[in-house]
Amino acid sequence: MSRIWIDIDVLFSRSSVEICPPSVLRVVLEICQALQVSASTQVGFVRRKGGPQNWVCVDWSDVQDLPAVTRYRAGALHLTGRQVSTTKPSKISEGASFTQTNGVADVLKTQLQVLRAGSGWFGAAARYSLQRWQDNRARRTALSKTAHVPVRRHRASVLSGSSLREVVRPGDLFLALGSTWEREDYPQTVRWLRDVLRVRFGLFVHDLLPVYRQEWFLKNKTSRYKTWHQTILPLVDQVFVDGVDAASEVTTYLAQISRPLLQPIVTVPLGTAPTSTDAHLPVQERGEIGVEGEYVLCVATLEPRKNHELLLRVWRRLLQVMPATTIPKLILVGEVGWLVSDLMQQLENSDWLNGYVQLVSAPSDAQLEHLYRNCLFTVAPSLAGGVSLPVLESLHYGKPCLASHALAGNVSDQGLVKHFDPLNLHDALRVIRNAIEDRHNLKQWAKEIENRFKPVSWRQSVETILRHTV
Amino acid sequence: MAAYTIWIDMEDIFQYAAHNRRPSGIQRQVYEILQVLQGCISRPEDVRIGYVRKGADGDPACIVSAQDVENLFASLADDEIASVSGLSRKTPSSKQARRKNFSLQSVNAKAVAFRQFNSLRHALIRKFEQMPEPVGRPLLRAGTLQMRVLRMIRDLRNQSAVRHSASGENVPVRIPQSGRGSSAPLPRPHGMKPDDIFLVMGAAWADAAFGERLRAVRKSYGMKPVLLIYDLIPLTCPEWFPPQVVSTFSAWLENVIPQCSDIMVISHATKKDVQDFLVQRSLHLNQAPWVVPMGGGFGDMSVATSGPDAPGLPPAKSYVLFVSTLEARKNHILMFQVWARLLREKAYTDVPTLVFAGRPASMVEDLMQQMENTDYLDGKVRLIREPSDEELRCLYKNCLFTVFPSLYEGWGLPVTESLLFGRPCVASNVTSIPEAGGDFARYFDPYDFETVYDTICRTIEDREGLKAWEDQIRKNFRPTPWSDTAKAILQSCEVAHQSSQPTLRRAG
């Protein structure tokens, strides 16, 4: 029986969000976990140890403690929003001359805040170093287990730490699940796999946006991304994608560079929620999230494609047209990515829209689930993108989702999502305002989701992959 | 009828010149109005014009000579013009030029120091941003707060400069030997009379202590303040401004508006914003704000059509022009997105170049990076930094048409300028912009990308329609001369002056 070898190098590296977006990492992890559970005898995990032909096996149990994995369990919650202690410049009232002492006091107070923020750096730096040290130790432990002479027997009779060359058999599949484009010598690996080891090569393509929308990515990423895919795609025996958009991007690109596709593209349905969160968040932890009152949720890394600026404008308009007490907060969940410094500046300038906007970074899976379960509805104003995990998660947790047209056309949302034009403020405002005001309708919609939505487990994703490989 | 003098406050422009080399919209407009103001006075024997600025010795208003004002604007004018008129700013040759340029040089030195400080600040911000987020965050916050402290100290110093002689400004004006003290009326500088007009046309809100100065001018000198308001954008859209600016501006307005005898605005859109503000803050005015017609054009327009083209600019009829400082509010990103889509959907050769003419300012870092990421859309976007007046004329003259997608304006001068040069303008339809463009510009909704794209696409494709549109502008467009603006301002001053003389008015 042929086996699947999965490249999990990305879990060992410490890549930035731009190189390895959280959504990609999520897919890699969930598929690995599901494979490990449902087909442990057929699957092996490998990572690179040196040159492009030097790959070693890794025991899945050693991966469990890697920071890339543990952060979903533990989280590192951080809240950003309105500053509690905003210094108001003393008001100059008519008639009374500007009281200088007051001004000086203000200056001193603010200067004190500077010192406090500055001294906060030492703590932050110490915490960060400690975190890094722990991460590194976990990584080193995982690495040392695989680096030395094989010590343990894998259930699949694959020796942890043994070289891929020794255990692989012709006809096996080597699967790259994501963010492998970072390695420029990957073509050498693929050639070695196919020509020397007679192993088939499978690639999961999440999107080719850096090729088509290069304004959203830094230049060195786009050029590397382009070259990498140009060389690799013609060598791929089996391309996997998560939806029709990615599939059409791949076929268009191959046509553009006049290269053939070796096998029809296989669409893998994505799981609708993280597998790891079975338990509800303990009561005492709920308060610690620090999000109170009604809120609308938007889960997305802050980067230009995700179009957070539209939401900022919609909420600004809502503040103009609706009574302040009836407007829910906007909770953004995600890491601050790239090309959003002006957006962040606008949020700061407007005092986080007078406190109506909050940013939640790095919640654990349990905290994220809690945020989903308690929101009014979710919004996804992305400018491009295909299948979006947050949209599926929203439906999975029974929450209505307003998504951009760019995310329409996918069967995975089962027709339960309402759409708007992400480039039209009026349309977005109308749809969002409607959802806020018409609670009855919102309830009906949530009920319909509860009744009709069929969750997809990551096991189903894995079954599709297995069907096309083994 | 009693004779009176209109004292025009130049303080903000002196301050502006200390930090900037080129005039922005407001300084230009003030300059154009001042050029024609004297000529528009109907009774020159009764109405005189004078200039004032803040004195170095705690004087709220001391007189500046017309020559000083001229020099001030010369310092803000183009390098080319300065060199043509024999005033080389960097190396003054003659003794006279050296003396004349003394203040300008120190102004320049200050501007250079300011720029160096800013580049250092930006370098630090970038450095902090590159750090891992948890480590960089406290440093960024400390930095932001430190900047706030510096601004507060600067404001404090400015305030104290009104009452104490702490100002280190090199004031090229006579300093009156007047005493100070807010209760006793100050001895008025020679030439000033009660019921004279104190006209504020510039960006006086930069000075947080302006309210007190105005109070001194009003109470101690008995002058009538008349204020020209351009826009209230820091209040309506605070996200585009540092919080300090917003709160200063807000306090400034609340403080200054009740003291003014008359308020003028430059557009109906601004009038509405002012009225909304008054309602919101429960303030009351004796009469609704006047809308003053805005003139158009800059410098000598006849040179525009006759002179040779400035070198190094894109070839004629190969580009679409967008004249504006690059900042978030002006919405350059929208045009960038339109052009990105044009290039995705059309042949490269069918797409005209998009020319941004202006200086990158606040909150366009990400736009600049996006342009860089695409190599300025493979050369289809060009950023002509800080164009001179001459270059601007050429750019206008030779463009296919202009675009102006701004999200908020008090007026929209680039739209008027485009029409003055006979160039069609496709502009956004929000706030005051339709007032500036009238029936001669075409409009799109900047919040609806699809219509923006369609409008621009059609304008690019339909060259015959563009020609007809140009002809229509040439034939029918009647620009508002700056003299209309000046006359309206004079009228406003007249009304403010008369309101203080009930007996005379009744007699008249």
UniProtKB/TrEMBL annotation, chain A:
This is Glycosyltransferase. Residues 291-446 form the Glycosyl transferase family domain. It comes from Gluconobacter frateurii NRIC 0228. It holds the Pfam family Glycos_transf_1. It comes from the Bacteria.
